[in-house]
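Incident log entry.

Two folding requests arrived from the same account within the same minute. Monitoring flagged them as a possible duplicate submission, but the sequences differ. Recording both here for audit purposes.

Request one:
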Amino acid sequence: MTDQHQGPPDRQPAPAPAGPAAPAGRSAYEAPGEAAHSATGERAGEGAGERAEERDERADARAEAKADAYADGNAEGAGGSEADGAVGLAGRGRRTLRTSLLVLAAATAVGAASVAATGAFGGQAKSAGTPRAAGPQKTVPVERTTLTRTETVDGTLGFGTPTTVQQAATGNQGNDGGAGGGGASGGGSAQQSGGNTGSSANGSQEAGIVTWLPEEGATLSRGDTVYSVDEDKVPLLYGSKPFYRTLRTGAKGDDVETLEKNLAELGYSGFTTDEEFTSGTAQAVRDWQDDMNREATGEVAPGDAVVASGERRVAEQRTSPGALAGGEALTWTGTDRIVEVELEAGLESLVKKGTKATIGLPDGGTARAEVTGIGTPSSAQKTSGSGQSSEDSGGGGADEATLPVELKVASQQKLGRYQAASVDVILKARTRKDVLAVPVNALLAEPGGGYAVETRGADGRSRRLPVRLGMFADGKVEVSGKGIEEGLDVGVPR
């Protein structure tokens, strides 16, 4: 039996070391085969080990001092074994901690080296002399195409500029050469006197009273009533110019043909549609007048109908039932929505009748359109209250000259529910046919200036080909240069 030194009566004896003391920097519990690994760890973590050793030395000194004090205060028979045991335990604990730190630092260093060697976080490792990865990761082919550059201008979607319907002057009715009104009215005009009665333009008859008007927004077709005076209906007829005289048997002219065409379209017959007003025409007129509850005279005076090019949409009432007749009845427009543009004078070469355009709507939709009308260029000169124009007073009116342009939209359905809106009008400005093009984001700026595209060479490595740039359009750019050909794959961002 191995002898054991007895400690103080109230403590258990401290166990003696089981073997020779472990070398510095190595745990007493390490297997012999781990020595080399620990030494490697010490070298790899030399900086961390030195700091840990200093902390351990200070801790050993404190433990030895406590052990000496304990030994002095106990019986000599204890033989100092308790103090030695305390010192041994403290020393082993500190050295174990120090060694663990060294091993951890070494393991970290070795792990980092392993990650770098295996490429765990970025593919295989590359030496300084290894070329970089081959070619661009995403490519598109160079294409042969037609590029069209466009010009976008502001436009207004609506029903067009309203025109005024003028009521006929009562006193002119029945005159063979009665004065015709302008535009779509087909009648003369008279000023309202503000009372219940009034005089006509020649003062020979009293003015009638407006008894009916269509609602704003209403659509009027051939034969529909435009307004009523003294309960006499004034209908809409289709034609290119208003009636300016009383039409009766024996009259000849294109206005007679206009009347006969309308009578035929309304279902009346017994005449030949030509430029001669015959008895058959007169009978058809009497039937028409009777159907409107008007006096059947067989003659048509200038104020008996309003002539317009087609269906009309009422924009605004300009009078009201009960007012004296003879003034403005209403304003109207066509029924199709159109686009109007005030084009800058410098862009007038982009448009002519028949020019195609694209309309950009507020919701992102588009519609095709065609130029149907071009007005006269006008300078936006404003006249002051003194009669002096802005140009005379130093303004730049001439610089604001515009050209009114009207476009017809091919499909009204494409316009959706928009009645009036600001739109974009996209006009073709320039076209380049049969050119090589790439996306604009395929261009790479060269250090010395200019541009290039990235391709994959025959050896699989990335290379840049300088390019000359042409026209830009639709997110693409025209390119040319040595090696640039249709179908060549060039790099673009992923």
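Request two (distinct sequence, not a duplicate):
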Amino acid sequence: MRTVTAVPPELLTLASAQEGLLSAQQCDDHGVGSHRRSRLVRQGRWQRITHAVLDTNATPLRDRDGPRRHEHLRRRAAWLGLLAYGPEAIAVGPCALVLLGVEGVRTDVRPEVALPGACAGRPRDGILLRQFDDGMTVTQIEGRWVATPDWALAQAVPEMGRMRAIAAMDSARHRELVSAEGLAHAHDLARGRRGVARTHAWWAQSDGRAESPLETFARLDCTDSGIAPDDLQVEVVDDGRFLGRGDLGWRLPGGRWLIAELDGVDVHSEPAALLRDRARQNDLVACGAVDLLRFTGRDVTTPGSPRPGRLVTDVRRHLARARPTRRRKRHEVRYALQNDSHVVFGGGGVGASGGRGRDRTYG
């Protein structure tokens, strides 16, 4: 009968805080030596990831699922680099952003660390050792060294795509990790880095009111398509009662609003969240001042696609119906003239009376 190797509960608690990862030193400190670690690997309960780093979860990464999957994979990558290079290692770039709680970083982020005073080194098992930036400031997160938000953004943005880079800036501002001035400082720190030239316009496109990367992606999608929203986080009040807040808003004639709501799977898929969203949506529609459209991440235009996504298509169609264009106004004028109407341009815009005359005034 095979003996199952016991693992101290406090060591498993530590592993849980590090997304399932442990260093060999941490295991030694809790009485789990190399022989016991090897036995756990042979039993299929643990797996070796790189030199002196083990994963207490033997499930392959591709098969890991659950509501925290994306967050788990990002944080695991950040912890892998820190544990592989020891207590002096500093999480930098995208990995620093992840540990700081910034959203928008890709799920398949590469582990990146720097060592004080060290030059860049060869990647080890996919872990990138970056050159230590002269003057870089650091902070401690969960007992480990992490680049401060301004430096992390300066390091990460030049190597990111536009959508995710702006989403990370939005998230850092929304979480009050950096102010508008702090973001400008991060931009200055990024100057001179490889890849930064293409990002200069991006820094001014950040908006800290975005509450999720999906809201950022939707805002940029609409802006790039020529239908930029008039406002974000639009508050709807009816007779002094706050009904809700819309993610993206466009002003319509008569003081009305077109509101676009972005539903992320992780935030809006729980039963309680669905009930709250339904009640809020009903209140917004019932007040009579809001046209409400709802979208998910699949409705945002796929980068590089020649066709706009459903978000852009639906918003553009709704705005075209609700906002008369100059061409439509001219059509209305021609129709009015054909019916012997009295038409006035200027003052109150286009008006028509039931008179038989063809008097026209051009203001």
